[in-house]
Amino acid sequence: MSVKEKILDFVKNHIIDENETILLKDNTQLIDGCIIDSMGMIKLLTFLEEELSVKIADDELNPDNFKNIVSICKIVEKNLSTIKEI
User: Fold this and answer.
1) In whole angstroms, how large is the CA radius of gyration of the chain?
2) Is the dihedral of CA 16, 17, 18, 23 positive or negative?
3) Range of 28's domain?
């Protein structure tokens, strides 16, 4: 399963309420679309850290990096490549 698939799966199964019918695409606005709130962000960050071994730096915790699946994948892949370089 790719990083994008793992993130999509997590958002679908742990962020979006099972009673909601939201068609989640790569560019669906998560914050502006009120799909993810502050508690959802904490869940997402915990998932990224525990499941993907990615620690997002404080200066990277901004809405632009979490606005949709594409932006989340970019910040995750950037941090994964940093880990591999060490």
Assistant:
1) 12
2) negative
3) 3-85
